[in-house]
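Note to self: keep these together.
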Amino acid sequence: MANFNRPGGGRVNFGGFLHNTPVIRSLLYANVGVFLFQMFFGKLRLSGVPFDFYIAKYLYLWPLGSGNFYPWQLISYMFLHGSFMHIAFNMLALWMFGLQFEVIWGPKKFLTYYFLCGLGGAVAHLLISPLLGGAGPLIGASGAVFGLLIAYGLLFPDQLVFVFFMLPMKAKYAIGLFVVLEFMSVGAADNVGHLAHLGGAVVGLIYLLATNGGLKLFSGIRMPGRNSGSESWQSRSGGGGMFRKRPTDDDDLIDAEYHDIGGTVTKAHGGTRIITQEDIDRILDKIAASGYQNLSEEEREILIEASRKMDKGN
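Structure:
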């Protein structure tokens, strides 16, 4: 299993991450599996017609008035890609930006968010592209992936990302740059579904506003020096987030505290420990300050176990 060094010491085990993120693992397997099937079997013929023809006719997302549109294409188009670079960039972004969301939100919420963003990209392409001079068939997971980019830029605004693998930039600026570039490219003759990207981003933004306290979501995107990572996380996660901070006074609000669910986690050196809400708060503050990749093995296990318990309760 491939391992890579991570900042702050230790090693990142990609196999271990995928073991604990079943939705991302399944999405990666499904997308890569479909791509490999097309690569190796697409040219085979059924009744004299290549499989690629049937895949394109029934699984691509075709315009509404084309005569080739079927409702299931709103989902199937997300699992098809036109080239190695197309699928490589989408799957890399899915893994890089989706990993911590599945761990923090839990599989159900993560999968809901992913497909809603993909559907948003499909609807934007179907409804707006014809107004700009026509639209061809659409394939790719980019709409759903753009929803993950928006979530990352809003919930982890000060995390460094490497734009084009070279230029380090805070997430809030990098994601903002991507969105601006997409707007500027709408209508370009480059065979790229820019409207699908923007549609996924808009639906992701609406979902996050609805589940994270409305406009309070933007309180985490501030100028440097305005507040600490801990305060940023608290403001971002306070309105409907997965593991919210406890209320500071006694009132009728019921918080989603981990000890309400119950559970323990096995320590790396043996034995078990009881997980408290303070553990969750501390780990979420650490993610906001330095990123998921810098969590210890025990901290990741705590989050994973908590997300499983919360997921079962939804």
